[in-house]
C-alpha cells in the first residue's frame, strides 16, 4: 500500500472508494438561518476502521466544553484487508453503535453536527451501500472525508498543545486504518500567535496571506497503515517480538516518501515538537504514569521522553500477548492493537530523534468541533 502523498490542497479519496449513489439527500446538519447562538450544542462523530466515537460539546471561551461522549470498538475494517469489502457483521456492529449516537443527539437536541467516516470507508468497495444502510437504519448521513481533511482536522485539534517556543511541528495521528503526518513550519509566526495560527488551518492547507501570520505546511502524508491494518499485514508471524520488529521496520519504510524524512533529523532538537494523537499514544502515557484508571486530565498534554516511551514498549513486549490481555492499563479493546501502534510510534521516534513527545487525548472529533465553531464565529479570539 503506497502512502497518499498529495501536495497541500490536493487531497483525494483512496482508490476503490465510491461516492454514495442515488438522489441527493438532506445534509446531516441543519443549516443556519440566523446568527449562531454561543449556547448551541455541536456534535462530531468519527467512524474509523476500529472505533466509533462521538463528542457533543458547547463553545466555552476559545475552548470547548464536552457535554456528552460515546466511544465503542466496532471493528468496521475487520476482513477489509483481504476482501476489500466491509463485512455484514462489521456493518451490523457499527449500525448498532450509531443508533446509540442517534439517541444521544436527540436527547441533547443537537442541530449542528458533522458525522464523518475515514479510511475503512474510503477503501471499501461497498462503502456507498453501507452509507445508505446507515441512513435507512438510523437517519444519520455519514460523510466520507478525504485524507487531507482528516490530517488537517487532527492538526487543528492539537492547537492548544502547541508551545509558543515551537518553530517546527510534527503532528502524528495514528488511526485504525491509516496514519497521518503533517509537518508545519511556524518560524515565521510571532510566538504568541503560533497556537492560533494552527487553529486557522481549519480552512485548509493554504499558502500564507497578508492578513495573518501563517503556519506553513511543509509536507503532509497519509499512510494507509494504522493499528488494525498494520496488525493484519503480519498476522502470520507467530513470534511476538519478531512480529513487532517487522511491523516497525515495515512502517518506517513508508516514511521515506515524506519529504522532511531525510533532512529533518539533524535539526529535530531545538524548537522542534512532535504531538502524537491516538489511542496508542494515550495508552502508553497512562502506562507510564501507572494509572489504575484512565484520567484524561493527567494524560492530555503530558510530555514523554523517548526513553520513557521505549521503557513502556519494552514492558509490553516482556508481558507477551497473555500479559497484555490481562493488563487493565491497556484494556480489552486496545490489547489486540497496542503492539502495532507501538511499532508505529517506535518507527517515528527512530526517524525523528527528539527529547519529548507531547501526548494529545484529542483528534478528529475535536478538530471537527473547533472547525464548526470557528466557522460559526462562536469561539472567542485570543491566545490559548
- Please indicate the percent range of residues in DSSP E strands (runs of 2 or more): 15-25%
Radius of gyration: 20 Å
- From the N-terminal CA to the C-terminal CA, the straight-line distance is 39 Å
CATH topology of the largest domain: Nucleotidyltransferase, domain 5
Q: Which term fits the overall shape?
A: globular
CATH superfamily grouping of the largest domain = Exopolyphosphatase. Domain 2
Task: Report the order of strands and helices.
Answer: EEEHHEHHEHEEHEHHHEHHEHHHEH
DSSP helix fraction = 25-40%
Folded structure, characterized:
Pfam families: Ppx-GppA (PF02541). Its EC number is 3.6.1.11. InterPro entries: ATPase_NBD (IPR043129), GppA/Ppx_hydrolase (IPR050273), Ppx_GppA_N (IPR003695). There is one protein chain. With 384 residues, this protein is an alpha/beta fold. The chain folds into two domains: 42-148 and 369-376, ATPase, nucleotide binding domain (Nucleotidyltransferase, domain 5, 2-Layer Sandwich); 150-364, Exopolyphosphatase. Domain 2 (Nucleotidyltransferase, domain 5, 2-Layer Sandwich). Helices cover 39% and strands 18% of the residues. The chain has a six-stranded mixed β-sheet, sandwiched between helices. Strand 2 (51-60) and strand 3 form a beta hairpin. Helix 8 (240-254) crosses helix 14. The radius of gyration is 20 Å and the shape is globular.
Topology diagram in text:
Blueprint: E1 42-47, E2 51-60, E3 63-73, H1 80-83, H2 88-107, E4 112-117, H3 119-123, H4 127-138, E5 143-144, H5 147-157, E6 168-174, E7 179-185, H6 194-199, E8 216-223, H7 227-233, H8 240-254, H9 260-263, E9 272-277, H10 279-289, H11 296-299, E10 303-304, H12 306-325, H13 332-335, H14 338-351, E11 357-360, H15 364-376
Parallel strand pairs: 1-4, 4-5, 6-9, 9-11
Antiparallel strand pairs: 1-2, 2-3, 6-7, 7-8, 10-11
Helix pairs in contact: 2-4, 5-15, 7-14, 8-14, 10-12, 10-14, 12-14
GO molecular function: exopolyphosphatase activity
Enzyme class: hydrolase
Protein name: Exopolyphosphatase
Amino acid at each position: 500500500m503506497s502512502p497518499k502523498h498529495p501536495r497541500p490542497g490536493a487531497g483525494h479519496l483512496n482508490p476503490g472508494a465510491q461516492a454514495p449513489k442515488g438522489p441527493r439527500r438532506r445534509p446531516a446538519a441543519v443549516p443556519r438561518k440566523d446568527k449562531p447562538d454561543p449556547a448551541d450544542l455541536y456534535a462530531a462523530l468519527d467512524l474509523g476502521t476500529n472505533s466509533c466515537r462521538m463528542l457533543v460539546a458547547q463553545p466555552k471561551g476559545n475552548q470547548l466544553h464536552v457535554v456528552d461522549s460515546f466511544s465503542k470498538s466496532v471493528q468496521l475494517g475487520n476482513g477489509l484487508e483481504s476482501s476489500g469489502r466491509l463485512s455484514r457483521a462489521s456493518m451490523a456492529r457499527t449500525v448498532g453503535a450509531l443508533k446509540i449516537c442517534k439517541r444521544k443527539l436527540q436527547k441533547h437536541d443537537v442541530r449542528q453536527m458533522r458525522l464523518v467516516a475515514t479510511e475503512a470507508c474510503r477503501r471499501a468497495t461497498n462503502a456507498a451501500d453501507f452509507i445508505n444502510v446507515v441512513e435507512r437504519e438510523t437517519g444519520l448521513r455519514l460523510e466520507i472525508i478525504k485524507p487531507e481533511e482528516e490530517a488537517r482536522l487532527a492538526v487543528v485539534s492539537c492547537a492548544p498543545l502547541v508551545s509558543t517556543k515551537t518553530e517546527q511541528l510534527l503532528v502524528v495521528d495514528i488511526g485504525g486504518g491509516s496514519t497521518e503526518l503533517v509537518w508545519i513550519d511556524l518560524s515565521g509566526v510571532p510566538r504568541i500567535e503560533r497556537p492560533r495560527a494552527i487553529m486557522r488551518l481549519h480552512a485548509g492547507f493554504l499558502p500564507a496571506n497578508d492578513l495573518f501570520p501563517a503556519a506553513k505546511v511543509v509536507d503532509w502524508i497519509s499512510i494507509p497503515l494504522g493499528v488494525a491494518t498494520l496488525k493484519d499485514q503480519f498476522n502470520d508471524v507467530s513470534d511476538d517480538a519478531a512480529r513487532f520488529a517487522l511491523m516497525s521496520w515495515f512502517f518506517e519504510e513508508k516514511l521515506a516518501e515524506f519529504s522532511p524524512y531525510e533532512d529533518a533529523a539533524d535539526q529535530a532538537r531545538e524548537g522542534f515538537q512532535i504531538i502524537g494523537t491516538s489511542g496508542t499514544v494515550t495508552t502508553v502515557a497512562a502506562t507510564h504514569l501507572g494509572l489504575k484508571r484512565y484520567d484524561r486530565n493527567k494524560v492530555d498534554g503530558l510530555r514523554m521522553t523517548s526513553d520513557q516511551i521505549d521503557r513502556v514498549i519494552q514492558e509490553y513486549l516482556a508481558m507477551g500477548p497473555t500479559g497484555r490481555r490481562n493488563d487493565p492499563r491497556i484494556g480489552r479493546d486496545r490489547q489486540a492493537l497496542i503492539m502495532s501502534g507501538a511499532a508505529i510510534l517506535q518507527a517515528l521516534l527512530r526517524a525523528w530523534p527528539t527529547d519529548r513527545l507531547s501526548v494529545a487525548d484529542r483528534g478528529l472529533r475535536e478538530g471537527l468541533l473547533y472547525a464548526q465553531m470557528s466557522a460559526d464565529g462562536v469561539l472567542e479570539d485570543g491566545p490559548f
